[in-house]
Hints:
By secondary structure, this protein is α/β, with parallel strands linked by helices. The protein has a single domain (5-144), classed as P-loop containing nucleotide triphosphate hydrolases (Rossmann fold, 3-Layer(aba) Sandwich), CATH 3.40.50.300. Helices cover 46% and strands 13% of the residues. Strands 1-2-3 form a three-stranded parallel sheet, covered by helices on one side. Helix 5 (109-126) links the parallel strand 2 and strand 3. Helix 3 packs across helix 4. The longest helix is centred in the N-terminal third of the chain and has 19 residues, at 45-63. The relative contact order is 0.13.
Amino acid sequence: AKSGIARTFQNIALFKGMSVLDNIMTGRNLKMKCNFLLQALYWGPAQREEIEHRKKVEEVIDFLEIQHIRKTPVGRLPYGLQKRVELGRALAAEPEILLLDEPMAGMNVEEKQDMCRFILDLNDEFGTTIVLIEHDMGVVMDISDRVVVLDYGKKIGDGTPDEVRANQDVIDAYLGVAH
């Protein structure tokens, strides 16, 4: 996070007993300057700093349209909303580069559409570079400016979605031609 990079995980790694707000707030930890003692006492500079961090977290909550669940424990949320909270925690770090590991895994069509919209908006509105690892090729082709295709760890395609779709190596790999 200090280097401007944040990530999400394929398997959700949230604090299930904590609220949405508190989970997203953990994404701000490395941005906090006050020492542990001041934070524990919640005194002076630590109090002012937390107020500033909460403002940023509220902006993330608004962006992800999850105001109505901000106080809900994450463990009580459906899977798609948990994935959105995890994205929020990564966004709270204000990354320049965001690594998303299978953000659509396990989601229904509506949840995937929402997540795609948030990913595109992140790039358009904030200029955040998104590195997406995703097996849903429809999603990849729909939202990507550039696609890199790996087959057993070897790069077999690199270009625009249209270029990759027309790449014979990619066609062969995904149609099951023997290796």
